[in-house]
Amino acid sequence: MTFKKNILCIGAGYVGGPTMAMIAHKCPDYKVTVVDINPTRIAEWNSDDLPIYEPGLDTIVTSTRGKNLFFSTEIERGIKEAEIIFVSVNTPVKTFGAGAGMAADLQYWERTARQILECSESSKIIVEKSTFPVRTAFAMERILSLTKNDIHFDVISNPEFLAEGTAIKDLENPDRVLIGSRETPSGLQARDELIEIYANWVPKDRIITSNIWSSELSKLVANAFLAQRISSINSFTAFCEKSEADITEVARAIGMDSRLGNKFLNPSIGWGGSCFKKDILNLVYLCRHYGLDEVATYWEAVVNINEYQKERFVLTMLSAMFNTLAGKKICLFGFAFKANTGDTRESPAIFIAKKLIDEKAELVITDPEALNNAKIDLNDINGTISYIEDPYEASDGCDAIAVLTEWEMYKGLDFKKIFQSMIKPAFIFDGRNILKHKQLFDIGFNVFPIGKPSLTHF
Ligand code: NAD
Ligand code: UGA
Predict the structure, then answer these.
(1) What average pLDDT does range 145-173 have in this prediction?
(2) Does pTM top 0.90 for this prediction?
């Protein structure tokens, strides 16, 4: 079969895999190839056991794979054949040198840009899909302009706004698709080619265009605002716990103000995930680079409050359990950074588990999708940790349960049965406020929600 266009995506991760599967699904006349330097990851994408858990992903991958969706390690060949290349490599925080711990580590995209330059035999559109610092497109253009022949590259910014756990829903029905381009004739033509792809399923009024720097900045600002909202509600959980106000009632009251809206107001042990922290720190770094210290400090506080929230959760556990956790067995309900994903990158559970081990507690970790990642995350920890998928078995003989991920299945458990199998007094720390606290208290638990008065039998 001949295809209208060849699309390549470099980077077969949480973004590259699902986004390209959706394009292949919605655009059967485009050939979509996803490449990666990691052969294991590519083998998994080509198997029945996909490398990431995402509701609905299996269905669209199996319906397109081998037809117009291909996963491969042949990067050079992919570059040669493609007319449009999405760059979806990781952009983690730099761990060395200038800007360590704050700035984005750009070695992966720079390597990719150089490889594109080296292997290209024809002009191409390069799409920034990864989240990059503002003005990365400028650096990418500089590298790609080193070409010896008359090959031309147009760099476009098309940041991804999907959230894990709802990636397929978000991709199928996005709030908006943002495309930033140069205002040159070829920049605008490249932009239109990208619009043509998305227009196969996204309503035209939700495909918005901007200049390239606004597009790059909008991605960082969106994540900063989202994280700020959670940090804000979480900061008031601490206030509620001091004042006997109830955060659920406060969230409902403010969320009914249409100017504020009611989404992203769920209190928690802190936000996690691979992006919020790195993107805000990157923004903070850029602000300082531009001499905007006050702006940098303002956004840095969003991260600081999140660290405080995680720390506060552990201190609540310690103080509730008579100021000692040594030798006590604590069951962590959930390890993923949010429900419906197996991803544990920057999961608050990692921080909490390490702190509990520092207190010499014994841990039992249960999670329906994230146990393999949890084992890797805690691999070098010196302590007693077991991993058990069944929550009943996991909590058997424990002193306390800490709910760290809002998995739907935890709401329907038989807590009478769980209570009977636990050491008394039995504690529940509901770090997501998903359980029925009064019912748990009536069963006999000492219950510590987030941002609400605790319910204890002492
Ligand atoms: P990831 O680590 O899951 O995937 C990145 C992939 O790129 C890896 O498989 C890695 O092997 C591959 N890679 C790195 N260098 C390469 C190279 N030179 N050639 C070929 N492959 C290479 O990361 P991710 O979560 O998919 O995130 C990718 C980007 O998208 C990041 O910038 C992130 O900030 C952004 N983003 C992520 C999400 C999300 O939900 N995870 C959402 C929106 C945006
Ligand atoms: C987030 C953004 O929502 C996406 O738009 C963005 O594309 C993505 O980051 C990215 O750039 O990587 P994600 O991290 O996958 O998506 O998931 P979210 O739903 O945003 O949750 C992030 C964290 O906040 C989770 O730990 C979650 O449990 C927590 N959270 C979320 C709360 O504590 N309370 C809430 O009300 C919502």
Answers:
(1) 94
(2) yes
